[in-house]
Amino acid sequence: MKDQDMVLSIIVNAIQFHLQHARMDSGEPGGVLSPEQRVDLARTILAALSEQGFEFTRAPSEPR
Q1: What are the pLDDT digits (tens) for 19-42?
Q2: Longest CA pairwise span in the chain (Å)
Q3: Residues whose CB is less than 8 angstroms from the CB of residue 50 and which lie 6 or more positions away in sequence, other chains included
Q4: Is 11:45 a contact under the CB 8 Å cutoff?
Q5: C-alpha closest to that of 7 among 42, 52, 32, 38
Q6: How far apart are CA 28 and CA 25, in angstroms?
């Protein structure tokens, strides 16, 4: 998986996690983003970070 795809996946998961907890905290269903909307939002965040000079490279994993 490319570094940018991994960061995109992390952002999408963070959005989903936040939405789930926001719904639980409010006790109401609230506005739910579709998976496609979450990916679009994550891509927008990723593009904004890239425009600010962030580069996404994966650090080598530590041996277990």
Answers
A1: 777 666 656 555 567 778 878 888
A2: 44
A3: 56
A4: yes
A5: 42
A6: 8
